[in-house]
Amino acid sequence: MERQRLMVGYDLCADYSQISYYNTEKEEPDSVNFDGQNEIPTVLCRLFSNGEWLAGQQALKAAEAGNGVLVRDFIVRIADDPMVDVAGERMEKAGLIGIFLQKTLKALETVCEGAEVGFITITMEDVDLAAADALKRAAASMGIGAQLLALESHRLSYEYYALSQRRELWTHDVGLFEYDRRGLRYHHLSVSWKHHPPVVTAETTVLNQYLDGHELADPVPPEMDRQFLEAIKEVSARRMISTYYLMGEGFSGAESGKSWMNLSLKQLCAMKRHVFAGQNLYARGACYHSFDQGSFGRKPGFIAANAGLLTKDIYLRSVHKHAPQKLILAAAGAPWYSAVSRKAIIIDGQEQLIIRMRDPLTNFEQTAVMTLDALPQRPPKTTKLLIETSFRSETDCHIRVTDMGFGEIFAATGKVWEMHFDIGEASEASGQSAKEAVIEATIPQEVFPLDMKMSGTRIFSLEELCWYLSKNVYITTYDLFDEKMFFWMDKITGSHSLALALFNYKSAGKPLKEIVRLLLNAVDYLDNGEIARIYNKLTEMEHQNPLEQMRLAADNYNRYGHYMAALKNYHHVVYQMTHDYDSEMTRQFKADTWHNMGMVFLRLHNIKCAAECMKRAFELVKTQDFLAPYMYVLELLGDHEKILTLIRQEDIPTDISDAILNRYKEAEHLCEHSEENRKIQDGLTLGNGQTTAKYWDFVRDYLDRQKKNYDLT
Where are this protein's TPR repeats (predicted)? Predict the structure, then answer.
């Protein structure tokens, strides 16, 4: 049974923490109870008896009973001191956060048996680089990767919550009063509809001059009501506010109507304003963020313009579904400490990357150019690069690019290029250069190859598969699209819908050309012209007679080193073209068949049979294209008498015969003085001596080099 993947919001605070998940039936977040409570004390207790950890109320009870040591304050001031003292032992706060998260997230099983985290957003009052690093390491220790995790401050969670409500609740500005023992604070959201999507800015006002939190120990309701009324008047003056939210210990009971507020509540509700009270706004706001990111991977319906957030989209111009697109490396409105991305691209002749920065408020663009010096020389569209983006502050961007090669077809060098730049001081953008757009590539979920039986090539990505098909149209058959490919495509590359579509096409008996076109159109790699050429070649192959198809199969076996299979097919073709298909096949087709079969015999070192095949080819089509191979094979046999007889009988001009034989001698000379031949001669010398171990090392090395001859490269 497949486990349910929940979209989770987690409010991690120094005193109490809260968990929520997105209830798809209600279409809104719901709170998760831990030990029967929504608010979980942010404490741990390590038992003396067995070293086991307890969290929340269980930890408090165990410590109170003297059964263990209580640990607090492991989420605060991480930058100042990343360690905390536990009964004389120094422990990392990141590790303790991981333990606390692991223990408390087990509460998700009360929602649904076997439930797991599909995406989690952790929100804190403030997040700095040290806290972000600790949270990422804590999540990683639980098996929650960076792609399933988002970090944000309470301010951003508040914005997510407020702007995920009905539109009439944020037609104008929105206000949040937070009141606890630290005092009264007001968070104001200004919503600007001059842009699309709307731009939201937040500001916080401390109102401790009215209520500083000490009065909660000995409350005087009328005085608290009066002071709060004055605070409301101060922050709401000359502002159009649609909704107020109240949260914190000071407003407990307000949601049920049991509160000290009287005149202040009337002021809040004036002008038909909406007022809501509750204690889990931040956890629910984080949950809305998880739902957006985890379920749809979509941007929020607003742009946040707060301190601590990126002010610009960082992107590359790319091609998606054969149309211009932006490949976002970091999005405006994202917290800089969690704006980390890993993207794979394929370049097509570029020697530099143009990184663009766009301010969504002004549409002003800037660029930073990253030169890819000493880039490995490869054919077009066969260099995949991994681009990793991170930030050290709101403006300090770090780009790291790594050469990933192109699977095993073109090996990766691992070369790395890095660049730091200030997104506020980059150059003003100019027009698009001719070679700017890149191809967004897939990153397989696992490193597991798809083996191409004919060639022995191992394919690791959808782009490599498209390249392979484009270079090997004539060996593309219906059998290639089998269960093994569909499994690889579904489970390894994560392309479930594509695998299903191809399976349905094949099950419906669609022609091979339609199946191939579906695949090529679904993957952003080949352009429309390249796809059309492959489609036309497959159409031509459909109209070939059986003998042409068999010769094509033999040629492919020959190309990839399956020589015995090639000979079997060539023999069948030779028999048929001299009997049943004698009148249908052209002399050129017959000559090509004999020549190709001769090449197979040559590779098997059967030179006599190779000579007979080359002779048959030349007798059918007497051109230099067939004369030269025939003479080369006779030279290999050392049969100079036959060469002279051939020249005399066919009346071959001296300049032509001399040119052919001179090319042979040049090749022979190059071979004799080549590095490869030197290694072979040295190896044979070892074989004649007593150094057996070194000889077998030579043999293994020689065989490894020979295997490379059969690689696609």
Answer: 591-624
Helices (H), 256-298: 263-269, 281-290
Give tens-digit pLDDT for 101-120: 999 999 998 888 878 899 99
CATH classification code of 5-144: 3.30.420.40
What type of residue is 323? A
Beta bridge mates, 562: none
Tens digits of per-residue pLDDT, 403-420? 999 998 898 998 999 999
CATH number 1.10.630.10 is the correct assignment for the domain at 546-672: no
- Check: pTM over 0.90? Answer yes or no: no
| Neighbour count for residue 449 (Cβ, 10 Å) | 16
Q: Which two tokens mark 12?
A: 């991690």
Provide the 10 A C-beta neighbour count for residue 49: 7
Tell me 645's DSSP state: H
Domain boundaries, the chain: 5-144, 158-284, 311-441, 450-542, 546-672, 675-710
HSE at residue 353, side-chain half, CA atoms within 13 A, is 29
DSSP secondary structure, 400-459, as one string: EEEEEEEEETB-----EEEEEEETTSPEEP-PPPTT--EEEE---SS--PEE-TTT--EE
Q: What is the pLDDT of residue 460?
A: 92
CA distance 289 to 150: 8
Answer whether 5-144 and 158-284 agree in fold. Answer: yes
Please give, one letter per residue, the 3-state secondary structure of 152-214.
EEHHHHHHHHHCCCCHHHHCCEEEEEEEECCEEEEEEEEEECCCCCCEEEEEEEECCCCCCCH
Question: Confidence class of residue 711 from pLDDT cuts 50, 70 and 90?
Answer: very low
Phi, psi (deg, nearest 5) at residue 416: -125, 135
Question: In CATH terms, is domain 158-284 a member of 3.30.420?
Answer: yes
**Which residue from 607, 608, 609 is spatially nearest to 594, judged by alpha carbons?**
609
- Which residue type does 129 have? L
With contact defined as beta carbons under 8 Å apart, do 244 and 177 qualify?
yes
Summarised one tens digit per residue, pLDDT across range 625-674 is: 999 999 999 999 999 999 999 999 999 999 999 999 999 999 888 888 88
Dihedral angle over CA of 53, 55, 58, 64, nearest 10: 80
Q: Return the SS3 of 334.
A: coil
Tell the burial category of 137 from Cβ atoms under 10 Å away from its Cβ (0-12, 13-18, 19+): middle
The mean per-residue pLDDT over the stretch 38-51 comes to 94
- Sign of the Cα torsion 32, 37, 43, 47 reads negative
Answer yes or no: CATH 3.30.160 is held by domain 311-441: no
Listed residue (86, 153, 85) closest to 121, CA to CA:
153
- At position 667, the amino acid (one-letter code) is A
Contact status, residue 6 vs residue 118, Cβ threshold 8 Å: yes
Question: What totals of helices (H) and strands (E) does the chain contain, helices first?
Answer: 21, 29
Q: How far apart are CA 461 and CA 222, in angstroms?
A: 69
- The answer, yes or no, to whether residue 570 has pLDDT greater than 60, is yes
